[in-house]
Amino acid sequence: MGRQKQKHVVKETNHKKTRLIEIEIDNPFTFTESVKTADANELHSWVTHFYRGTVLDEEFLVFDIYHHSHIKSYNFEFVIDVRISDKPVHVIGAHFQHRKTCMSCPPFLRWADFINPENNYIVDGKAKFQIYIADRPKKYPKIPNAVHYPGDRTVELSVGKMKFYVNDKLLAFTSKYFERELERGTLNEEDPFVIDDVNVPDFQLFLDLVYNPKQYFTGYQAKDILELAQRFESVEIMQSCQNVLLEDLNENKLSTKEKIKLTEQYDLEVVRELFNPDKMPRPKCRPRFMKPEVPLTDDELLRVHQVCDLHRAGRERRPSCSEPLPLPPIPISPPSSPSISPPPSINSLSPFALPRMEDEVIVLGDTDDEEEEEEEEEVTEEEAEEEDFDCSMPSTSSYYG
């Protein structure tokens, strides 16, 4: 007799463990932001960030959560339940892997709804936030035909057979293309916005990055997402894709054959120059909805678009060793820093410096000591050079080193 066949049952490979992070705000009406680290040990740590942000002209309460892992091979799923005064706000499925500092899609609600006394989010002048983090069992979920993103879902995007329910203001905030569509009235609750000529998985990852700009993705995905970011004019996602591509090259994750393919699409020297950390537009790690310290200038936007044009130019024309691919002019120094000019000559000094220098150099009296005269001339030239040197000028030696 053979062994009796048993029906295969999917077993949970990990046990459920729920973590609770609590944050209490004493005066919610003047609240700006709150950061808390929890459950920190030698393997991982959690960081939560509540803050008051602005999307277009409306204020929202935004929540980000970061997971820092020190495990070499880490791939896990979590379910994050966010509540305010024990009232459910959002439930999010988050994916963390490969030591990357990722965060979940930030749930947000309107600030007017948060302080509205009818919603009972504020009790006795205080607001208590509860974040429940549970391990999600590793199963193969059925692919849904509709994706509901967190927060207010005010518009339906129809891509093939998939439906994406998103926030129109958030789309307009991160994409110039959708901002124009919102102004035209085509993004509304009544009629779905149809996009037919895009790949569904790529577009879903694009929307994931709209909601979660720090989500982990690979260099292979970045090449496809970069095309969508260019089409929908999303500068923030362009920067993320370019950073991932450069990181893959620096960490030698790509094979020689794959690097050759990238070389046909990008001028790597220009990319390295543009992605120097000192020249990156908005180099500081800042949550999206918080006001930037320094706004992104038109020149910085132009620089990002020029780098992205390398991808399009590489497809239209394959460069050879003897004939390099022509590139648009790219500014080297950041627009925010002062422009570097050649040092002024002696004739261009202030009128107050010339008479004093002449008095020190030209000896009116009769003297036979020529050595003392030469020493006075050397000291005067050193003083003139010190007057010409501007300490506020940034050094350019690192740009070409």
UniProtKB/TrEMBL annotation:
Domain BTB residues, every copy: 153-219
Biased composition (Acidic residues): 366-390
Compositional bias per record (Pro residues), positions renumbered to this chain: 325-345
Pfam families for this protein: BTB (PF00651)
Chain segments annotated as coiled-coil in the UniProt record: none
Chain positions covered by the region annotation Disordered: 313-401
Protein name listed in UniProt: BTB domain-containing protein
